[in-house]
Amino acid sequence: MAQHIGIVGCSAEGAALCYRTLCVEGAQHLGAHAHPEVSMHTPSLAEYMKHIDRDDWEGVGELMLSSANKLAKIGADFLICPDNTVHQALRHVEPLSPLPWLHIAEVVAEHAVERGFRRVGLTGTRWLVESEIYPEKLAARGIEWIRPGADEREEISRIILEELVYGVFKPEAAACFQRVMSRMRDDGCDAIVLGCTEIPLIMSDANSPLPTLDSTRLLARAALRRAVHGAAAPA
Which residues are 121's β-sheet partners? Predict the structure, then answer.
C-alpha cells in the first residue's frame, strides 16, 4: 500500500499544480489512473500574509502546524508544503509536528546535484530570495547561488502576489522573468530555481534561457517516490 500524502497548502495555484502532479504522475508508479491517497488542508492565504508581512514566522508556523495536525488525524503518513516562502517557518513546526516533512529546498538541491549544476539563480518572493532557505541547502551540496537584484526582487514579488496567485498569466510577466534569468546566465549561472510554486505556470525549460528547477513538480515527484517506495527512495 502506498503511503497517504498530506499537502499543507498555502497559495491555491501552486498547491493545485502540486496536487495535479501527484495524481497524474502517480500512474507512472502504480499503473493506469492510480495514485497514492492525497489529502490537503489550506487556510486562507490572507491569514498567512498577515504573519508574513510582519516577518512573524512563528505565526506562520502555527498555521502550518494546525494543518499538519488536521492531516494527521485523517490518516496522512507524511507532509509536503508546496510553498517555498513559508518554509522559513518549518524550523518552528518540525519539533512539534505529528508527522515528518519533505523539505522543498532539499528536494531541489538534490536534483540540482543529480543534473550536475554548479551555480544556480534564485527566483521567488522577496521573502524567499532574501532568506537562507535555498542557500543553506545548496551550499551543503557544494552548489553556488545568486539572488535577484533589489529591483528584480520587488517586481517578481509583485507579479507573484498580484497576478500568479490569482491565476493571471501575462506575457509581460514571462518577459520579466526571462530578463532576470538572462542576467543570471550572464553572471555564470547554469540553471534557475523556480522558487515559487506558481512560477512554473508561466516559466519552464521551453521559454527560459537556462534549464529550470521546477520546485513544485520536483516536490510532488519526491513525495510520490516516498509514498510508493519508502523514505529512502532514489530519484
Answer: 146, 192
